[in-house]
Structure formats: structure tokens, C-alpha cells
Amino acid sequence: MLSKNSTAFSYSLSFYSWYNYSMEEIISLCKRRGFIFPGSDVYGGFAGTWDFGPLGVALKKKLMDEWWNYFVESRDDIYGVDAAILMNPKTWVASGHTATFADPLVECKDCKSRFRADKIADGITESVTTEEFLATHTKCPVCGKENWGPIRKFNMMFTTHVGAVLPDDDAEIAEKNIAYLRPETAQGIFTNYKNIVDTIYPTIPFGLAQQGKAFRNEISPRDFILRDRECSQMEIEYFVHPNTWEENFESLRAAQHDFLENVIGLPADRIHELEVPAEDRAHYSKRTIDFMFDYPNGEEELMGLAYRTDFDLSNIARESGKSMDYRDKVTNEVFVPHVIEPSIGVERLVLAVLSTAYTEDEVNGEKRVVLKLPENLAPFRFCVSPLLKNKPELVAKAKEVYDMLRKKYTNVTWDDSGNIGKRYRKQDEIGTPKCVVVDFDTLEDNTVTVRDRDTTEQIRISIDQL
Ligand SMILES: [Zn+2]
């Protein structure tokens, strides 16, 4: 539900009190328990890439499935697409990425380090000029000197060559075969608008949704999975009659809050809407709200909601020579739809969920780390174990319970390692809500101990009540 008015610049330091731990502790847990590893770890890593391990991919997939279920499968007006990552290069000319998807790159003439100018100097934007940058008298973060080259525009699209291009081919052949790894999933939706309108005749307003990888050659990737070179996006392009954009914008805005707060359990008071002022918006956007989230290391963008007008469809019409008109089924009015776009980065969402769930408390005088993940996102719903692993009758009974629960819930894990206390600690750290333990009483009366992750309370219930 829409829980607050736009709270532009509601930023305050008070959120730090919500976290009694640092981002480093989350990163450490992620590696220790198999959620997220540095990309190509065995070769010493590869900057700006991260790999999801068994538990991380389980969490990420559940988040993506919840989103798909909420926005696509539970609604009559939003349809899914899954477009190719490699697209005709005209796509990026029409969208403006070839010309403007660039960051201001500056090089230190002394140590040759390269930086994004707007990230190392205060009070300047992405469109900073060399003169403006030099006037800030910024020192090189690496060598401390102030000896800068000019600002150069660095396009963040990854290029590749499609087809048989050899190293000794001339530049012209190579140039003709250049393709890009898509920098956003949105264009794969816009380029399918006409196919969808011509084949399934959706009634406006309607949306097209897509989940998939996008690639940005960040000059300096940082902040764990917040700013990586390869990420997953979940985007919806919602096509509306131009006169109705405001009401559709509001209903999509409310839906984002409902999803974030009520479906995946992010605390409403850590989500802040930032109304992007006109001078900072992309030139085609008439309104943009950034949804900011209080992460342990500060406020960062979680997702965006933008009114993109008819910018994309009109560009595609011009570049392709094909009409992007929509004919209203009732009024017969012909128009190019306008678009409202909710866009979310999956890794940012994963980190928001982990930051919210990560908790340190004390149990029996010992520090405990526990991931209080909502049940619908936890990699495992139950962990089943025999009290003792060297008693065949306990193991057999526990296997029976395990098989039964797996049939019912699928995401159930088995653990008979170490002692029971160690197993609880491990399941707490990976966020398993309930541990089910089979002991000698189970053999007598068919009851088991169910231990709750958050309260550590244990109750005795009959197996058929599980
Ligand atoms: Zn330097």
C-alpha cells in the first residue's frame, strides 16, 4: 500500500541505528554460507562480477518468482516477454544509448588511474565539463596529486562482434559486425510492442514485463552487488493513453510499495521516495521517482518509476519506419501510447532483503547470527534431522519425515552433521524458519520437536500437523 507522501530528501542518519553490523559482515556471511561469491573466484576474481551459490540462487529465484507472480500471473493486464540479449544495433541508436550512455572519465596524468569524475568530486553531475571539474581542485584518490587530463565521455555499453570477424580483418569489417550486450532489458520490451499488439490485441492500458541480464561497463564497480558490471533487471513497460498517465503512474506507484513491503517484507520506514527534480531527469521523462533504500552503508537506489512519455515508441517508429500506433477498440482513436516504467535491479533487491534479515543477537550468552528471512523467500522452509546420526532407527524415521515434507513443500533440507546446537546455528545463518528433530520419543508417539528460528522456542507436535 502507498504508505507515505513523496519524501524527497528525507535522508537522515537515524537509520544507522537500525543496523548494528556492517556491510562487510553480510558479505562475509554470503561467502561463508554459499549465497554469493566473487565472480571467477578461483582465478582471483573479475572486477564487478559476482556468482550466486546454491543458497543465493535459491533466494534470488524466489524473489524473481514472487515479482513475476505478483505483476504478471496475478494480473490480467501485464504480459511476459523474454527477448534476446543481443539486439540489432539500431536499437541503441534509437534509444540514445549509442550517443549518450556515457560516464565522464578522467585520468590522473601522474599515476594513470582512471575515475568517474562525478564520483570523486563533490557538487558536479555526469555532464561535468573539464573546466568545471578542474575548478573543484580534486586530488587523485590514488596518488594524491592534482594533475588531470581532460574529461572524456566513456560509453558504458559492452561491445562484441557478431559472426566471423578475424583479428586481421580491417576496421570497416569489424565495425559492421559490432553488437552490444544490452545495457537495459527495457528495449527488448519496446521492440516487441508491435508484435504483441499485432498478435494478442491487448486492451490499453497494458504492460509488458521482462526479467533478464543487463550489462554496464562501470568505470569503477563497487559496493558489493550494488554496482556490478552484469546484473539482473525486472522491468515493466506499461502502455497508457497519454491523458491517463497520472492515474496509472499512481496505481503503479502503490503496487511497488505493496510488493516491496507486503510481499517480500521490506520495512516501509527504510524505503524513501525521491522525487527526481526536472533538471536531473532524463530529457524524455516528465516524472521520475527513485525508490531509495537504507542499506547498512547508506541510502542507495532500490528501483525507479519513470514516466517515459512516447519517447521510446516514437524513436523506434522513426528508426524502423514502422508504425507504433495503437487503435482504441472502443473509440477507434489512433495514438502512440505513452509509457510508465517500474524498473528494479534484482541484486539490489537481494541485498535489501539480506540487510533487513541479517540480525545478531545473543542466545545462552553466545553471539548468534540469524537471517530472519520471510518464509516465502527462505532457501529452505524446513530442516529435518535425527537427534543422533549413529542410531539407524532415528535416521530411518527422520528420512520418512524428510520425504513427506519434501513432497509437500519441496524446499526442505537434511542435516545430520555435528551436534544439534551446531545444526541450529547453521540453519539460523541461512535463514531456515523451522528445524524439525526426530528423537526417541518420535518412535513412541509420532511427535517431533519443531524449533523456531527467530524465538529459538521449541514445541512438540505430531508429525501429521507439520
Ligand atoms: Zn594519481
Q: Helix count?
A: 15
Helix and strand composition category: alpha+beta
Q: In one word, what is the shape?
A: globular
Bound molecules: zinc ion
Percent range for β-strand residues: 25-35%
* Low-pLDDT ranges: 1-16
Please give a structural write-up.
- With 466 residues, the chain is an alpha+beta fold.
- Helices cover 31% and strands 27% of the residues.
- The chain has helices at 23-32, 54-73, 90-94, 97-100, 117-120, 130-135, 171-176, 186-190, 193-200, 245-263, 311-320, 346-357, 392-409, 420-430, 440-445; strands at 36-38, 50-52, 78-80, 102-107, 114-116, 152-155, 158-161, 178-181, 206-215, 230-240, 271-275, 287-295, 298-309, 326-327, 334-335, 338-345, 358-363, 366-371, 382-386, 412-414, 434-438, 447-452, 458-462.
- The strands form 7 sheets. It has a 7-stranded mixed sheet with strand order 3-9-10-16-13-12-11. A 5-stranded mixed sheet has the order 20-19-21-22-23. Strands 5-4-6 form a 3-stranded antiparallel sheet.
- A hairpin with a 2-residue loop joins strand 17 and strand 18.
- The longest helix is centred in the N-terminal third of the chain and has 20 residues, at 54-73.
- Residues 1-16 have low confidence and may be disordered.
- Bound molecules: zinc ion (ZN).
- Zinc ion binds at residues 108, 110-111, 113, 140, 142-143, 145.
Throw out a few tags for this protein.
466 residues; 31% helix; 23 strands; binds zinc ion; disordered N terminus
